[in-house]
Amino acid sequence: MTIRADIERMPGDELLRLARVLKVPIVVRTIKRSWLVDKVLKELEKRDAKIPIALESPAIQISSVTKNFGKKTAVRKLNLRVEPGEIVGLVGPNGAGKTTTLRMLTGIIRATSGSIQVDGYDIVDEAISAKERIGYIPEKPTCYPSLTAREYVMFTSRIYRVPHETALIRMREFVELFQFEEFIDTYIGTLSKGNLQRALLIGIFAREPPYILALDEPIYGLDPRGAWNLKKLLRRLRDEGSAVLISTHILEVAADLCDRFVIMNEADVVGHGTLEELQKLHPDTNSLEEIFLSLTGGIPE
Amino acid sequence: MSTFKLMKNEIRMLRNQFKSAITSPSMLLFYSVTFFGIFFVSSVISTFVSFAPLFFNFSVLLEETLDMGMIFAATAVLSASSVVSGYFGLGPAAVLTLEDESLMMSAPVKPHQIFLSRYARRILRKISFITIGVLAILPLLISASLLFFAAVSLLAIIIISLEINYFLGAMSSYVRLWISRKTQHRLRHLIVIALGAIALLPAHPWLLSNVSAIYVAPSNALALFLTESTGIFSQGIPPLYSIIFIMIGFMVCLLLTANICGYEYYELFSDNKGREQTEGRFSKIIRGEIDFSKSQFTDPMIWIMMKDFWSRLRSPMQIWKYIYAVVGTVFVLYLNIVKPIWFPPIIVPIGLAFAIVPAFILMMILFVQMGSVTSMLSFVDERDNIYLLKASPFNPRDIILSKYLLSLFEVAITVIPACGFLIYFIHIEGYLAVITLIAPLTILFTATGSAFGAYVPVMTNDPKTLPVPLALSFPIINLGLGAIMVLLVAIFSDSMLILVILPLFTLSLVYFFLALSLRALNTYK
């Protein structure tokens, strides 16, 4: 039903493109939209139903990871696991080592010691397999300014080997969800920060679930509706078996969204667990904010 | 993921850039100014001077002045300098961008695929620029009786050879990474001397006269192409051989560079990006503990200038500019006063004497133009802070004037040593009258630079990146203005009117360009 709704919402040129990708025979000059929608749906049904892939457990395994930049230690002996069907919040003040952790997790930089596995693949020894399974939103979102948002989504789906028809259908679904229709053919260089963030998110979600996501301040720049949509989507993905690691210092977002928390301060993990577990350990606190403050220098008077 | 798909994406981006350039009137205007400006200048020059006899005599003159070994040595020195500078450079990581860091480094693609796709784009861009450049100077080529094909092939081979040097530098950087993995001994960097020596080796006279295979070395192949295609010191070897050697060298070096591209270059890129944001150790020492926030000045213009001066000084390269200005000025003063016999000026061959004054003036304009590039960056260096500056309670005129005056100082200290060298090396009669033009040229070019820089945020959403057409048309417009100034001086040189006309011309144009800057600042998106 969802696919039908997405296909019915497609503009004419997008629908025609999908029909061409699916090799629907079009021999007449004028065709009815409803006829084409039915043909496309039939063609999609003919394709082999894919067996949903389940993620390895744990989906993310960070074992004893240390990262040094010269004499400075950015992350020290970090251990972290994210299971499928879980959203873990990596929280901490500026400079705690959150972004460095995500950059190591996604293979942008290498750990000085320790190991990182994504869906069972080592990020150093099996980099391509590990990277194929992870989706990353950086802290400061950037993208190729000379591509249109549509070109970017199609390009990224090719990089991640998403079948063309799947990418087209999923792009439509998320364009609608993030209310991005008017910007889809706009050059990325002219997009606002919030819309750039939306384009990057559509690029990730054009891939097939379940996902392993490493999101660095994903709410950054999104308007309240966009933020609400994203949070709802992440909860849905979690329920469907995706694993999500979110780095943020917006504690309302973390408290609202995450199942577990890892609190970092000055390269070290200073606390971890569910909100209830953390509150048990710090009985004089009433919220995640107070737990966070007491673990990272004390609650100010 | 095939490399081909990545290349296709790079080409798509290039096509989109082109499409966007030709559909935005301002970009199209600047591209047209560049193309037709060069075409016009080359047409005018070719009507005044016929270069054919000059080129005819040139090879004879060069054979009298140089010896063949010097050409081979020069190309080998070029390769060696690439190897040495490449050793301390980023190597293949230099092609990576912030966008790659966000998107491609975490994507399931291999580093060599990113490198090859980015390189394909670089080559395509170069090919387009060469083609447009050669078309623009067509009148000069015709005047020099040079065949279009010969000129294009000469340019192409020189550029391919420079690309080979770029690859040699990239491989040299790999040696640094490799050796740093093996040892942290301080003396490990001495290896760069050995690498430089290896690059120089093919130009050794004994090898050149006894080992025929040494001509396969890229630097020798380029020298061989230059000698055989121009006829200077020709040994009767068809230039096709050297083209084949160069193409083989290019392919081998390209594949070797792609082969050394590994994940360690991601690390190198991130590390370098982090370093850009921190102060250079040396500049910290020079700067000491100066805190400009304690300044006694109350004028907002002085504040902006001080902010720019100190924030620029905190970037690692800037300090070298000031060192160059001081050391260079002292050195040119020494040269011009003492005239040391160990560093003699160029003796111009009699056959070329007729061209020496125009050459001097042209070089003078070019030197001032090169120095004035800083002024174009005065707004670009602000990056996104330009909007903060615009929103701050400063009078826009103060912002423009402060940017202009600081740029004028920086351009002047760059231009002084360069022109000092020019005066020493190319001694022309009556040079004192000619060099007085340096001052109005500097004042004018700095104003055009400020105006160009101020227009960047008007033309693009990315105020830290200078659009290509703007960067290309800047020297053309300056050369044009310089030529008009020289023409005015030539026409009125015998009249006292020049004392009025020259300042009037300079100041009115400076006012015009500063007014344009102000207009740009008031129309930021």
Notes on the structure:
The complex is a heterodimer of chains A (301) and B (525). Helix content of chain A is 41%, strand content 21%. With 301 residues, chain A is α/β, with parallel strands linked by helices. The model of chain A has no long low-confidence stretch (mean pLDDT 89). Chain A has two domains: 1-49; 60-145 and 172-295, P-loop containing nucleotide triphosphate hydrolases (Rossmann fold, 3-Layer(aba) Sandwich), CATH 3.40.50. In chain A, 44% of the residues are buried. Chain A is built from twelve helices and ten strands. Chain A starts with a helix and ends in a 6-residue tail after the last helix. Chain B has two domains: 63-128 and 147-274, no CATH class; 278-522, no CATH class. Chain B is built from 25 helices and no strands. The A-B interface holds A 69, 103, 106-110, 124, 127-129, 131-132, 134, 136, 138, 140-148, 151, 155-156, 158-161, 187, 189-190 and B 1, 5-6, 9, 12-14, 16-17, 20, 98-99, 101-103, 105-110, 263-264, 266-267, 270-271, 274, 460-462.
